[in-house]
């Protein structure tokens, strides 16, 4: 079996459940936590040379991982978390937690990341996905990113060469791995920024089922509509399949009420898609990534 030669943590036969916020999935043959770009590049290089499938994960807050596990290497970037503040800009490695970044920016009187204070993912995934909330999105703040291209080259890509869409970007389409990201923020009043973040957090606690394992919004909102509204109108609020349940609090969330399997969640997703399509002639697409 291929074993990367890195100083970062390495675990054999590791439960995927521990690597995602839904707490779902079988075992992975190997999980590794590279500590910096050099280690990440060497693991990916090793996987490619040895023809071993790999899966990149941050906090696992936007993925549905398989019950049958992963035959390959799961590369978790959370140990890549160095950060440099320079004036109104900040550069951090891919694994830096977005919520911490938003909080620290606020504490330094830097505005722009308020919307991200409740998004429980990493900066790298957020840049690749163009994570956003309450009208803000990461793409608007990105100045440049450093990536590992699908061809194995490290490149710095300035903002004007990245196309950001709704929960998507050209980085994702080109299978670039974000190594580091520089954001441009702007000065603001510390008290105002913090009050705004507290307000947004309170809103999340009121409207999102944060008491159960979940992966945020399951479906993308169709243009001019809300996936949650359609799901509720179709009568799915609170309905369960095994331990997978359409949240009572927010119908675009599916929560794990204990021992939900990936198959339970996926089946629920598919029956909702079929039902919403039949009732409203709208095809709901998933926002979460099904692995
Ligand atoms: C309670 C809750 C609330 C949420 N609210 C929001 C919200 O308001 N707005 C929002 O946009 N999202 C929200 N999410 C979803 C999620 O937190 C974001 O999409 C987040 O950006 C995902 O980061 P992650 O590190 O968890 O990514 P992961 O789930 O680990 O990975 C997601 C995808 O990105 C890829 N990826 C991971 N790291 C990188 C990298 N460095 N470079 C390239 N690709 C990479 C993975 O391979 C995978 O395909 C929420 C989730 C939860 C659980």
From TrEMBL:
PANTHER family per UniProt: UDP-N-ACETYLENOLPYRUVOYLGLUCOSAMINE REDUCTASE (PTHR21071:SF4)
Protein name: UDP-N-acetylenolpyruvoylglucosamine reductase
Lineage of origin: Bacteria, Bacillati, Bacillota, Clostridia, Eubacteriales
Pathway of action: Cell wall biogenesis; peptidoglycan biosynthesis
Residues at the catalytic site: 167, 217, 287
InterPro entries: FAD-bd_PCMH, FAD-bd_PCMH-like_sf, FAD-bd_PCMH_sub1, FAD-bd_PCMH_sub2, MurB, MurB_C, MurB_C_sf, Oxid_FAD_bind_N
Record's subcellular location: Cytoplasm
Essential cofactor(s): FAD
Role of this protein: Cell wall formation.
UniProt keyword list: Cell cycle, Cell division, Cell shape, Cell wall biogenesis/degradation, Cytoplasm, FAD, Flavoprotein, NADP, Oxidoreductase, Peptidoglycan synthesis
Domain FAD-binding PCMH-type: 24-188
EC assignment: 1.3.1.98
Provenance organism: Dehalobacter restrictus (strain DSM 9455 / PER-K23)
Listed transmembrane segments: none
HAMAP family: MurB
Reactions it catalyzes: UDP-N-acetyl-alpha-D-muramate + NADP(+) = UDP-N-acetyl-3-O-(1-carboxyvinyl)-alpha-D-glucosamine + NADPH + H(+)
SUPFAM superfamilies: FAD-binding/transporter-associated domain-like, Uridine diphospho-N-Acetylenolpyruvylglucosamine reductase, MurB, C-terminal domain
Gene: murB
């Amino acid at each position: 079996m291929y074993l990367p030669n890195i100083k970062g943590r390495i675990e054999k036969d590791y439960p995927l459940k521990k690597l995602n916020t839904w707490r779902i999935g079988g075992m992975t043959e190997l999980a590794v936590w590279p500590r910096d770009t050099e280690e990440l590049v060497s693991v990916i290089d090793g996987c490619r040379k040895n023809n071993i499938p790999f899966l990149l994960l941050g906090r696992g807050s936007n993925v549905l991982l398989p019950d049958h596990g992963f035959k390959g290497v799961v590369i978790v970037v959370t140990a890549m978390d160095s950060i440099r503040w320079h004036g109104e800009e900040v550069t951090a490695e891919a694994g830096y937690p977005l919520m911490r970044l938003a909080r620290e920016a606020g504490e330094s009187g830097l505005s722009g990341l308020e919307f991200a204070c409740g998004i429980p993912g990493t900066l790298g995934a957020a840049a690749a996905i163009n994570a956003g909330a309450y009208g803000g999105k990461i793409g608007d703040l990105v100045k440049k990113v450093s990536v590992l291209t699908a061809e194995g080259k490290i490149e710095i890509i300035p903002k004007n060469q990245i196309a950001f869409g709704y929960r998507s970007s050209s980085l994702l389409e080109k299978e670039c791995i974000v190594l580091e990201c520089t954001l441009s923020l702007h000065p603001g009043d510390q008290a105002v920024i913090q009050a705004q973040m507290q307000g947004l957090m309170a809103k999340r606690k009121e409207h999102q089922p944060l008491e159960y394992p979940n992966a945020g919004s399951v479906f993308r909102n169709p243009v001019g509509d809300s996936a949650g509204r359609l799901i509720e109108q179709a009568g799915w609020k609170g309905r369960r399949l095994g331990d997978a349940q359409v949240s009572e609090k927010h119908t675009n969330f599916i929560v794990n009420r204990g021992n939900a399997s990936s198959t339970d969640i996926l089946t629920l997703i598919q029956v909702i898609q079929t039902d919403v399509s039949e009732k409203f002639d709208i095809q709901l697409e998933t926002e979460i990534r099904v692995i």
